[in-house]
Amino acid sequence: MLETNVGKIKFESDLNAYSKAIKRTYKTALKRTIMFLSNQIINRSPYDEGAFIASHKISFDFVNDEIYNGPKLTKGAAKAIAKKEQKKVKNINQDVIDNLTMVWLSNNVPYGRSLEYGLYPPGPKISGGYSKQAPKGVYRLSAQSAENKIKEIIKEAEMEEMRSLKK
User: CB–CB of 158/27 below 8 Å?
Assistant: First the structure.
């Protein structure tokens, strides 16, 4: 009888450790996926005065509709503002992840739809309705590029967790 209880306790302990490992793997994969997508969006974004790049937002369970309304930015400064949003991802805690229903990567500048869907009228910086710097949009291409990368990210996170469990 004592052996059975010991076996049951070990099984419950192993199951609990496995459950925690799955949560850590999910958290790692989620963070890396959001960071990958965010970097893709930032790097694919056209630059004019910096507002589009600086207005990229990451939010959890709501759409952040803030836009950058400051002075013209250098491309580097605009990217630095966008990268600050990524700190939210790095600092997300397990409670937020456990209750998370949606992650939003958004940009609400008034001309965002024109950039994404090629709705600009002809002009010197425009080709086929798109910005020449983003000839097929930004967000949709970033999402498409993430499809295979997400599988890779999950596999990497699983392997890292398995290595840490073996230690």
Answer: no
Percent of the chain scored above 70 by pLDDT?
93
Q: How far is CA 104 from CA 58, 96, 128, in A?
A: 6, 14, 28
Round to whole Å and give the CA distance between 160 and 27.
12
Predicted TM-score (pTM) of the model is: 0.86
The encoded tokens of residue 100 equal: 């998370």
**Token pair in block for residue 43:** 């790097």
Phi, psi (deg, nearest 5) at residue 106 = -140, 165
Closest by CA to 142, choosing from 31, 28, 40, is 40
Supply 45's token pair.
Answer: 């974004």
Closest CA to 41 of 149, 129, 116, 130: 116
